[in-house]
Amino acid sequence: MLQEQYRNQQAEQAALAERRNASRVPVIKSGKIVVGGGYSQGVLNCLVLDESATGVLVDLGAVFSLPEEVVLQMGNGASYRARRRWAVGTKAGLEFLGPQAAGSDIEAQMAQMAQLLAAKGLSAAMAELRAQHYFSQPELRLAAEAAEAAYHRLEAILTAGRPT
Q1: Helices (H), 37-164
Q2: How confident is the model over 35-64, as a mean pLDDT?
């Protein structure tokens, strides 16, 4: 019986791996899947087991029949429209349908980051952005990296006393 369970588990893992379009990073994060809308809206708790730029693997803890499109709300406030690509047992693969949706929590956090940048400068803002894991957002990461590189170039020029 244990051997049969082990074989089934191996087959399930192989099936999961074959469906991936992008490399994923193993994580364990809490999340919520919002289904339906209005008075028929439901929320399912889940664990995000791995993630990539294009989607996530979630474990719902029980077998549910997910609709084709859902909203995934991550524990950090990030929210994504997603499409169910597959489901096996308690696990499901969700593909993101566009960029992260900016919720009111994220908008408030971004406003705080802007205030920190204005009050304490680039170094403090970069440290906080890293601590909050905002670099998973490509546009923000590229802008922050460019700003940091320009800051270091300017600092080098000013401390050398002449342009390079």
Answers
A1: 104-120, 122-131, 138-160
A2: 89
pLDDT-derived band at 42 (thresholds 50, 70, 90) equals confident
DSSP state of 82: E
Check: CB of residue 93 under 8 Å from CB of residue 19: yes
Q: Which domains does the chain have, with CATH numbers?
A: 2-96 (2.40.10.220), 104-160 (no CATH)
Q: Which of 66, 116, 37 is nearest to 56 (CA)?
A: 66
What is d(CA 130, CA 127) in angstroms, rounded to the nearest whole number?
A: 5
- Please state the length of the chain: 164
Distances (CA, A) of 6 to 53, 88, 150, 160: 31, 16, 54, 64
3-class SS shares of the chain: helix, strand, coil, % to 5: 45, 30, 25
Predicted model pTM: 0.54
Which of 87, 48, 49, 46 lies closest to 65 in space, CA to CA?
87
Q: Please state, in angstroms and rounded to a whole number, the distance separating the CA atoms of residues 109 and 101.
A: 14
